[in-house]
Automatic annotation (TrEMBL):
LDL-receptor class B repeats lie at residues 1076-1118, 1119-1161, 1162-1206. Residues 1-166 form the Nidogen G2 beta-barrel domain. CDD domains: EGF_CA. GO terms for cellular component: cell surface; plasma membrane; receptor complex. It comes from Patiria miniata. It is found in: Secreted, Extracellular space, Extracellular matrix. This is Nidogen. It holds the Pfam family EGF_3. PANTHER family: NEUROGENIC LOCUS NOTCH HOMOLOG PROTEIN 1 (PTHR45836:SF23), SLIT HOMOLOG (PTHR45836). Keywords: Calcium, Disulfide bond, EGF-like domain, Extracellular matrix, Glycoprotein, Repeat, Secreted, Signal.
Amino acid sequence: MAWLFALPSGKGYNGFMLTGGKFRQTLNITFSTGEQMLITQDFQGVDENGYIRVIADWNGNIPEITPSDYVFVDDHKEEYVRHRLGVIHTFAKRSLQVNDDTISYTMDQTIEYDECSADEADTEYILNFMRVSMTETYLIYEASEEILRFSMIGKVTPASEQIDDPCVSNNCDRNAQCLPAGDSGFRCKCNEGYEGNGQTCTGSNPCAQNSCDVNGYCIPQADRYTCACNAGYQGDGYTCSVDRCASSRCDPNARCVETTQGYECYCNAGFTGDGFRCQVSNPCDNNACDANAYCVPTQAGYQCYCNDGYTGNGYNCQESVVNPCDNNACDVNARCVPSPSGTYQCFCNQGYVGNGVNCREEESDHCANNNCDPNARCVSAVFGYQCFCDPGYRGDGYTCQANNATDPCANHTCDTNARCVASAQDTYECYCFEGYTGDGFTCEVDPANPCASNTCDANARCVASAQDAYECSCLEGYTGDGFTCEVNPANPCAINTCDANARCVASAQDAYECSCLEGYTGDGFTCEVNPTNPCAINTCDANARCVASAQDAYECSCLEGYTGDGFTCEVNPANPCAINTCDVNARCVATAQDAYECSCLEGYTGDGFTCEVAVDPANPCAINTCDANARCVASAQDAYECSCLEGYTGDGFTCNATDPCASNVCDPNARCVAFSPAIYECSCLEGYTGDGLTCEANTTDPCVNNACDMNARCVASAQDAYECSCLEGYSGDGFTCMANTTDPCVNNACDTNARCVASAQDAYECYCFEGYTGDGFTCEAEQINFCANNNCDRNARCVPTQTGYQCFCNQGYEGDGYSCRATQIDRCANNACDVNAYCVSTASAYNCYCNDGFSGDGFVCREIVDPCANNNCDVNARCVPSQSGYQCYCNQGFNGDGFTCQAVSVDLCYNNRCDFNAECSPAQDGGYSCTCNQGYEGDGFTCRNTLVNLCSACDASAQCIPEGRGFRCVCRSGFQGNGLVCEDIDECSQSGAACHRYATCYNVRGSFSCYCQPGYEGDGFSCQEVTQPELDDGALIYARGMAVMRVPLNANKPGNKIVFRSGQTIVGLGYDCQEEYIYWTDVSGRTISRAKADGSSTEVLISRGLSSPEGVAVDWLSRNMYWTDSGYDRIEVANLDGSNRRVLLKTDMINPRAIAVDPIGGLMYWTDWNRDAPKIERANMDGSERSVLVDSNLGLPNGLSLDYTTSQICWTDAGTKRIECMNMNGDPLTRFTVLPNSNYPFSIASYGFKLYWSDWETKSIQTISKTGGSESTDLKLPRGGNGRIYSVTAITSCPSTSNACSSNNGGCSSLCLPTQGGQRYCACPTNLEGNEVPCV
């Protein structure tokens, strides 16, 4: 190639000047590694497109060189010797550096061409010896196209002119090379890794001359570099290929695998599906658990656990005998009693009270004989009692005085079922309580209130539904019909150990927390009155809330749905939700003055009056019979298994709690309190301090070691002193107490929930405590429904307590229960992102993205590591990343394995200036000498071939081959003789000629040619019959004004008008070859219509949402149509009936016009005649992978046509007035001009061997061969229609093919859009703004 196109210097001639690009080359290459390659190439001259066509024949093999190898070609020279007329020969020894290795080889080359004999005398002295100098040779291998590209600077000079080497005396830097320039000058060029003007060179960017792939980039690292692939490509940087998986639609839980056609998706381990959708697979489906065990999925697979009543590792389980009391949860001051059913019950020991799980020592009522003021209240404490003045009084509680303003209700005469309300300074009024009627001084049960005497369950609320009717509904935590309510076992608070003055809040499926109510302090399990809270004892109405307004004052405000001053609250008749019959799991919404609606809360389903938990029918665990303390695990599509939770034992259908305190590590002086079957807490006993695990006696409490009588209590009176006082019923000094025989209550028979009051010297009476009812000898807890008229938010639930109720916001809401607002769900709260990734919450899910320095899908991120960052290469070596790590290569001038490199002894001949046909020898004085090779003569710096004149004896059709000091002549291929005389062989006269039977053989000198006969096509060695379409089978349709016309390609047949509509302007035409329909756009009416090919069955498909519809194309395989809109500047698609319309592209468009689709290849093409930047683009037919096909040498690209037979895309350009074509793959080298000088071409169509286009200036349709030319002919058009011809389309039959959408719509419910590689994309339609409409 250097000889063919080298820059001539002086009187030099390059190969193209001598041959015109028509010659035969024979090249024999022999490598020092043993390989040999014979190359024969026929250069056939320049064709009509400016290219040289070459027929090449390569035989042999070459040394193996991988795409990532470093290859360097040094500057060199070659001598071309003219043996005789039309024959040039060259022989050269060359070397090639591959990484750290040097491969030597020889080249024996002969060039034969037709040389004019008349010029021989004038050029002989010049052509006998020609020298070609080659510098700056670069090699680049493009793996994606499997092409080796190279470039060099070549210069040809006549060797006979003895041109001096200008580089003999140069002033180039030692880190530069001297390059001849012009006829007598030179230039200096800095070596790789250096920069400067050549005379001065300094170290430069190591990336300046890198070997990275064209689709990669260079990363400098000190004096070395490494390569990495660009985004969208993969490889080691030295070789990069398109990463087809970069934009894959694989599921996040799938891996993408590239294929030759595109990519495939495979679900990761632990997931199942087609790769595009992957679901978690159940590792327990095929488990090896014992028959008496259950399987629990884990991240690593699954784990087996033996069922209750069995012991083992889960894979082998044996039946065990268990005493239900072995690990009981009873209090240390309680006894466990086994039951026949395998469970147990806990009973507090004598002297303790409680539920058996928590027992506390019985305490005396310290307020029984208190010393409080009559206008004060007594509050019992641990070691005694405290006194607090009543509202309206002030003092220390033992002495209380009325405030300045007297309370007129202090001594009221209201009925016991009425409340007193002060109306003036010294007057008051009485109001009967709700459910009672009267004047306040006398109150009786209101017969009009149907709930006055209801039969609702004690754990239900009564709601009046009519004048004399009521309804009952179970309270939260209970289930039933309202008349009978039972504890809901699914509510962990149903059976809790919280204090009576605390509320229970479920914190998990089987756990809860206790917190003291307002006005009380403690840990929730034990709560005491907060003396600093003025609301602890208030006179607010039962339907009001108390709010502390100062240290010892409070205010009352009626709850929502009630009106009044807070001390007296009545139902607000304006609020229809005040008394509603909505389900407890529903919200009430007022719809009118006296009407309301009920709607079930999230997670529930029903009519609002009755709500049930919403279940998923596809989940077998949605409705299960597992125990409330068990987990349900789906084992098949419609089956499930139950296994008891941690802290419980049983078969899953029945689970009993285990006692976590059974094997506690609490201090002996501490108590263990179980919070759940698996959680407990240790707290030191009274008189001890510590964390519960370690407790020590409290030496600061003087009562720790007191001497009080066992029937006395110890009260600390100072830091180290105490006093003893006998308990009630005992008398003495406290250190000695004896039973008071005069007290009739000493041995009373009152109920434990009653107090004994002496009524005479030897008689007493029993009175039930507040909150209990009975005769005193038998007392039962009163069942009060505090939630009947609660003030909770409609998005909250009411939980009754012993003294009132508490409000808790429902799931998905937050607040204090009285006011709840929707919470913002953080989808990233429990994300599965990699630790080296960050989570981004979206409306319905979340996405994971790897952090900087990591790569992956966000769920799995791997650190991006430069393998050469910490390499062990020698300081005189370079590190090159590889797929397995890195490799080390010694720098030039060093030898070794890369990890250890040693300097090579200086080769004085390394950069010698000897002639290419001379040998260099180091001289003793430190220089070198040049000696011409055998067969050459000269001073070694210039050598001439001594055999030139000897070879003149060979025939012109023979090759002169040097042998030792002589030569021999050998006839060339296609000739026969002894070499001195060679005659042409007539291959066509010999039997068995290689030409096809439908081809003609033509003998030429030294060879022969084969040409297919008329009616056949091929290369002559293979010919096929040309099948041309019958003219009467072909026709065109075109748009002219308001009409669609049809014209046959057979000039003998007349055309006709097939569609006409007044007022329309038809711009684009499309044809459905499958159902034979015509589709067109009307820019005036802003519509898209269709009709049968004969003009019948006309219908408008789209009549809204269009601005300026122009081009239209039909995908006959997927049954879709595509169009451009230059008003809205977008491209849309819809089904052929106009349904499922979708906007595909709407950005970076100015004036989109023509559009064409290739449903076989999955691509669409369109023109944009933007006058500032015209272009032709293409994309997948779903709008993805958009790219510019042509954006140079364009003016006004209007029409567009695809030719499937030749894989060409052709277009008309009214700006350049040209018609051009190129390959559909977008290769710019395939672009050629069909017609260079049209008038005003607009639309274009392809049919058979011809192109047809409309011309606005001549108002005609013209035609020309697809191969081009300079002349075109007009097509005879029928009468009818007027104006310019906008669109031309050919009536053709459908190719016999299919795509991913042609069968069953590709499995899509709406739009099936084909893409490259035989793939398809299922798409939903969009609205007119381009926003997607949900679909299946």
